[in-house]
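Hi there,

I know you've been waiting on this one. I reran it after we fixed the sequence typo, so this is the corrected version. Both the input and the resulting structure follow.
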Amino acid sequence: MRRLWVAWAALLAALAPAVARAQEFVKVEGAAREELPAGRFVAAAYAFIWIAVLAYVVILARGLARVRKDANDLRAKVDQASRGGGSSPRV
């Protein structure tokens, strides 16, 4: 147990100068600052999202129009087959 306390004390003694240096604060004056144009990035992000949503809606609308056309064609074939004497419709 004594060895553990000695090792712990030695570790703290070794780290003490580093801790003291880490707590010092020196203000830097005249440093170059890099500023990002946040407004342009936000506008670009919103534009990208809205374009993606618009493209998705257009793709869905085109697919829905195709499904509606296919359903109307199928309905017409079924109506024609039912009036035509009971033969099974070819799809």
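Quick highlight: The mean pLDDT is 84.

Best,
R. S.
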